[in-house]
Amino acid sequence: MKPEEFAHKFMQAATAMGCTLSPSGNVVCPGGKNISAGKAAAVYKRHGEGAAKVPSAEFRNEPHSLKLFRSIAAKALG
Whole-angstrom Cα distance, residue 48 to residue 5? Predict the structure, then answer.
């Protein structure tokens, strides 16, 4: 799968899980930074199928964003 395809599936999975999207289309993360489709694609490009277990270094000082990203990525890669 290409990073762009993963980003699309990531956003679909986030919507299906009931996550809120910002007006600019980013996944809203309560207590952390919002996650954009570009960020999802970049992480997938670096980690491939292991994106659901992405290291915490990808989201420095953002434990809420990391947890949310991992859960959405696991569903997107499902």
Answer: 12
